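Database export, one record per block. Field names are fixed; values are copied verbatim from the stored entry.
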Amino acid sequence: MDNSVSDLVLFIGRFHPIIVHFPIGFLFFAFILEAVSRLKKYSHISDAIPLALLAGAISAFVACIMGYMLSQSGDYEKSTLDTHFWLGIATTALAFLAWLIRTEIIRIQSLAGLKPNISALLLVILVLGITGHYGGNLTHGSDYLLKYAPFGNDDKIPLVAVTNVKEAGVYDYLVNPIFETKCISCHNKSKKKGGLSLQDSVAIKKGGENGAAIAAGDVNKSELMRRVMLDPHHEDFMPPEGKTPLTDEEKAILNYWIDKGNADFNINLGELETSEYIVSLASRLLGLKDASGRVNGDLPIVSKVNKEVLESIVVEGFRVRELVFESNLYEIVLPPQTITKDNANEIDRKLKKLLPIKENIMWLSLKDNYLGDQYLKDIGTMVNLYKLDIDNNPISDIGVAELVNIPNLEGLNLYKTKVTKKSLSSFSRMISLKRVYVSETLISKNDVALYMEREERPNLVIGI
């Protein structure tokens, strides 16, 4: 953006998208009046046509001025902007001309039997439509209008379907769809907010007015990630108000691509060190089976949860998030240190609130909440539990034994608990368990090494 442009100019310019609808409405209204007045029954309405044309011409003039002001932001591609600008001026001039002809201030002879006022109005509507098209290209991108048309898209090569999630290109299959749905409307070749386009790899590498949007291998230095992670009320938060924010899953995908994938545009998921969470997430997004054999949509069928029940859980301090829209399967999180030694008796009441929806809980986090062994018996009845975080709690082997009958549990975090190598036998009995975090427990590295020599699963993670 040109720093010499005053804020007042940009402020007024931002009303262009509102004002521009007035000339469109007035001029199309004049066209409709002209067409309907051809009928003898409605011939009298032709008296309103000059007023509609004049209102359209004046509002088009105002829209042109505001459009010029808006263009000073520098957020738009120059070629398309210039075309839209001059077409807007042409529309305004033709609208005034049509008004002058219709009021007979200017008299022109009929051409080939077509009345000049009709010819002028048809030309106004034609140029107005073309002007609007280029304006739409500036706002939404050049392919917005015909993107989903059943013709003319032969130049866009569709992605080849993959059957193995690890064969999927991280950028093409996972990252680019996020950009297309959440970012491209403001960051395309025609409209570059902040000078940034996310249309393709060349544009992304180029960055914007503030430099590189992505710092390969360093999420913390990536301006794009900084903005999507801000508080939604922050001035720099992206996408802006009125647009749909990125989900936690989409943020995780971008984080993974930048950090683990070094923002490589050609690397496949199988070439990277990838967590089970990302593999599972990518599998779901691509409609493939993940390591657990689940398929996108192949989720446990459970009863719908009463709204009042969910509200009562939230009142207890839990964060509740539905994992898949209308799946009735939830992630439940009790923020760390909600329960301390001083209010330890409250954990029992809070966990009892979860029992009515125990079959609906798929992810549960109770980390650092003074959770003791006696409370794990109720958790052991949550048959659809997939991931359980109970780290940093006074849990021992007795509590872990209460979890052995959870049929779908795949991930278990026991970091900073009191479990010993006696729990290794419990891990082996958990039929779906794939990974257990046991750092800073009484399980030693030697215990883990000996266990992994004789057991194929679960994978015991001793280092964080």
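Remark 1: The beta strands are 319-322, 330-333, 361-365, 387-389, 411-413, 435-437, 459-461.
Remark 2: The mean pLDDT is 86.
End of record.
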